[in-house]
Design brief:
Blueprint (H helix, E strand, L loop, with lengths): L1 E3 L6 E4 L2 E8 L2 E6 L13 E2 L5 E3 L6 E3 H7 L2 E4 L2 E4 L19 E4 L15
Antiparallel strand pairs: 1-9, 2-3, 2-10, 3-4, 5-6, 6-7, 8-9
Protein name: Rieske 2Fe-2S domain-containing protein
Keywords: 2Fe-2S, Iron, Iron-sulfur, Metal-binding
InterPro entries: Rieske_2Fe-2S, Rieske_2Fe-2S_sf
Length: 121
């Protein structure tokens, strides 16, 4: 699935799970927009000084940027990214049964630390 890396429709929702394109330490990747700990808005995360982890804005839980980079295979071309999302239904806690298997696009603002340099978010 292909979607913009910034601006309108920068988030793709697959089977109830939201994904965004983020840049950390000059390296771009597609990541789950929810914190794996308690579902906080990871797309609004801060980044540790060493750029090794993202910091959830809800409770300061740190998540490995390297692990997130490896979860979703993706290729960026210009202002769009094409990603291969998991072929599994969303967890019941994240999506009601009626949205499983559906895809949509929406806008999710990114923290300044995750937005690509010069992006209009």
């Amino acid at each position: 699935m292909s979607f913009p890396v910034a601006g309108r429709e920068n988030c793709v929702v697959v089977s109830g799970t939201a994904y965004v394109y983020a840049t950390v330490d000059g390296r771009g990747f597609v990541m789950n927009a929810q914190c794996p700990h308690r579902g906080g808005p990871l797309h609004l995360a801060g980044v540790t000084p060493d750029a090794g982890r993202l910091i959830c804005p809800w409770h300061d839980r740190k998540t490995s940027a390297a692990r997130l980079r490896n979860e979703i295979p993706a290729v960026r071309t210009g202002n769009r990214v094409t990603a291969v999302f998991p072929d599994r239904p969303a967890r019941a806690a994240t999506a009601p049964a009626d949205v499983c298997g559906r895809t949509s696009r929406e806008y999710r603002p990114l923290s300044a630390e995750l937005a690509r340099p010069g992006a209009a978010v």
